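Weekly modeling sync, notes
Attendees: S.R. (lead), two postdocs, one rotation student

Agenda item 3: backlog of single-chain predictions. S.R. asked that every request posted to the team notebook include the full sequence so nobody has to chase files. The rotation student volunteered to paste the first one in as an example of the format we agreed on. Action items at the bottom.

Example entry:
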Amino acid sequence: GNIVDGKLSRESLLFISEEKHHNLRKGHLKTGDVIFTNRGAGIGKVALVDSSFDGSNLNSQLAWLRCQKELRSNYLYYYLQSGNAQRICDKPETGAALPQLTIKTLTAMSVMYPPHDEQAHLVDNVSLAKDESNRLKYSYSQNLAALDELKQSILQKAFTGQLTAESPELELVG
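Predicted structure, as returned to the notebook:
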């Protein structure tokens, strides 16, 4: 799968045999892991693993980060989307085939974090702000769609001769 809007997508999933899954000892995901695109055009995209992907394997364009007790995974998820972390993503190393951020670069990245309870508070605030931003974006797009529909209706009336100075839809102000 790949990362879309901060989540792992079920599109383009590949399925492997149970035997191959057991032979691939690295990269078995756990709920709460942070996934990071480290190769290709989508470098820097981040997702949190939800329970539906628990036990899944990764493809080669994704790296997983598993937090220790002192760092919350949802805090790391937002931190990796911050300007500080994304600046690192703007300077990938160029490989033979694809630009990439090596695991060495990722593990060398320093993550500043406050105590556990403050992380929770910050995550709650960011989540609320993100929800409000998404609500406003949806409302804005709905308003733009309504304005476009009104514009098309007025143009249609104008070109079919239905729109005149005497039309009740128009009130001339002078």
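Discussion: group reviewed the output briefly. The longest strand covers residues 34-37.
Action items: rotation student to repeat for the remaining queue; S.R. to check formatting next week.
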